[in-house]
Amino acid sequence: MKIRFEAIPNPSCRFEIWDNETGVPVVHHNRLLTFASAKSAARIADFLNDGRSHRRRADATERRVAERDLGWGG
């Protein structure tokens, strides 16, 4: 099963929620969902995907985000 929502790093050193189904970032109430930390973004992505097994998948999402982080801003 493909994960619909993912936390990805963006060029402004923040992490945004990406919708893999539509191919665009997630906007909620006319605001782009961006977060300062990978952990916060991963938790929201997990919640959007299905929060029932929240902690286990949030940990996996954090690892994927950390692997994709190219070291921007440091």
Textual characterization of the structure:
- The chain is α+β, with helices and mostly antiparallel strands.
- The protein has one domain (5-68).
- The protein is built from 2 helices and 6 strands, in the order E-E-E-E-E-E-H-H.
- Strands 1, 2, 3 and 6 form a 4-stranded antiparallel beta sheet that branches.
- A hairpin with a 4-residue loop joins strand 2 and strand 3.
- The protein is globular and about 30 Å long.
Topology:
Elements: E1 5-9, E2 15-19, E3 24-25, E4 27-28, E5 31-32, E6 34-35, H1 38-50, H2 54-68
Antiparallel strand pairs: 1-2, 2-3, 2-6, 4-5
Helix pairs in contact: 1-2
Helix-strand string: EEEEEEHH
- Low-confidence region ranges: none
Rg, please? 12 Å
Through-space gap between termini: 34 Å
Share of helix, binned = 25-40%
**What shape does the CA trace take?**
globular
Task: Describe the main β-sheet briefly.
Answer: 4 strands, antiparallel
Strand content: 15-25%
> What is the structural class?
alpha+beta
Question: Tally of extended strands?
Answer: 6
Number of domains: 1
Number of helices: 2
- Overall residue-averaged pLDDT value: 82
